[in-house]
């Protein structure tokens, strides 16, 4: 469902005569809903797939309640017990629980919380596309090196990680060492420090420079 269609339905809904019945503190959203869950390679992370795209660009990642203060949905999820991370991208919300708890009733609580609080995020300004000569990568300024790495992450990495409910944030570059931070399901996934890390490193070496090393921070 397109964003324009979602907003049109919301506008139409808002024009419907209101009843005198008491309203809940936060009414359940009748347009955007969780339609299914999807397991991820991380047993502690579950992807809640929505029926519409709520974030056009980038992602939202929260690891604490305080980080989610400005996001009503993220905050509401963190107020449930045993939540370690909330990751939002495109049309899904990946929730990571603590290893000591079981999904069981928690899965239903998260599902209902998302249904109740989910909203379309405001559109953000899209950065200009990068056009650089990667053959001279080692001569780039730090800023241009970071842009080149971001280009590869966007083109070859992030969409694949998103399928498993995760993501990656570029934290910096020191010499030939690229520092990354895993997000969502990737945050505590057993394969993030082995297979996933090697895949990212291989892509950066193939597309930018063979001397690059990737380190998870």
TrEMBL record:
Feature: compositional bias, Low complexity: 17-27
GO biological process, any: iron-sulfur cluster assembly
Pfam families per UniProt: Nfu_N (PF08712), NifU (PF01106)
Gene Ontology MF, one: iron-sulfur cluster binding
Protein name (database record): NifU family protein
Alphabetical list of InterPro entries matching this protein: FSCA_dom_sf, Nfu/NifU_N, Nfu/NifU_N_sf, NIF_FeS_clus_asmbl_NifU_C
Start and end residues of each stretch annotated as Disordered: 1-27
Family assignment from sequence similarity: Belongs to the NifU family.
Provenance organism: Candidatus Nitrohelix vancouverensis
Scaffold protein Nfu/NifU N-terminal domain residues: 35-121
